[in-house]
Amino acid sequence: MTDPLAALRIDPAGVSAADARLLRRISADPTIVVDLSITDLAVLCETSPATIARFAQKIGFSGYRQFRFELAQALSREQADRERHGLDDDDVVAGDSIESVIAKVAYQEGRAIAQTAQSLRGQDVDAVAALIADAARVDLFGVGASALAAMDLHLKLARIGAPAWFGSDVHLALVQAATRGPGDVVVAISHSGATRETVELLELARAGGAATVAITNVPDSPLTAHADHVLCTVARESRFRIGAMSSRTAQLTVVDIVFTRIVQSRAEQSRGVLRRTRDAIEGHNRAAGT
User: Fold this and answer.
1) Which of 1, 109, 138, 290 has its CA 20 to 30 A from that of 116?
2) Is residue 93 assigned to a domain?
């Protein structure tokens, strides 16, 4: 079953002007689909009922009726979830109390984890895990907050002796990507799927014959156009934020799931390496003289 809220995560730049107008209007307030007939929605969005019907089909539904029904169900589930957390609204605003901020951020982070996990297909995760486990070399890249998720996967792979590389220098990363070829894997992480450096890097790697993986919140994005495998997050950021929050949590969820499958696939080898790497740093986790 297609998640209607996830289906709306399309890059407006990659669709027609009419679809982009629909996408922006519905994403800003999904309840208009539930409240309006297809004719009334067409008037509001300055388009035709036929265009709306085709739009619903493009994002995975049989037509507007099914899209409207599934969206109503999804919004109802979210409302029930907010009520369980004692929230009238999940968006943080300037006047919120500390108690409200704690509750809302916890709800947003938990929702990102749950919805991301629900959206992932097992066969997609296993395909990526198998690629990384068997790769001659794995390059990981992200910009800004997405770099944190790339770095986290790099640290995890290092713990099991996997030949992984992560670098924060964009020019060096582009050079590395340009030299990758068959047998190598390049993993690019971008919440928007449109970060120019990340897109260019994945394009270079694929042109050289490397297997490419995209981790992004936008399934139909410039980044996924250059990816052999795509793992999607489901995260919606609060309007009142100073950096990546839910998006970072969702990316780390994907990283943890993929890494767990890699370790499972090479359990005997991983167990020994994990023990040795743990022993190597154990003494540094204690105060001197203890």
Assistant:
1) 138
2) no
Residue 83's pLDDT band, with cuts at 50, 70 and 90, is confident
Kindly report the pTM of this predicted structure: 0.80
Does residue 133 sit in the same domain as residue 186?
Answer: yes
8 Å CB contact between 129 and 262: yes
Cα–Cα distance, 164 to 269 (Å, whole number): 16
Distances in whole angstroms, Cα of residue 129 to Cα of each of 1, 10, 125, 153: 24, 26, 6, 12
Segment 204-225, tens digit of pLDDT: 999 999 999 999 998 888 999 9
Q: How confident is the model at residue 84 (pLDDT cuts 50, 70, 90)?
A: confident
Domain extent for 1? 1-81
Give the domain CATH number at 209.
3.40.50.10490
The backbone torsions φ and ψ at residue 214, rounded to the nearest 5 degrees and listed phi first, read: -115, 135
Q: What's 13's DSSP letter? A: G
- Closest to 231 measured CA to CA, from 259, 206, 208: 259
In the predicted structure, residue 256 carries a pLDDT above the cut 90: yes
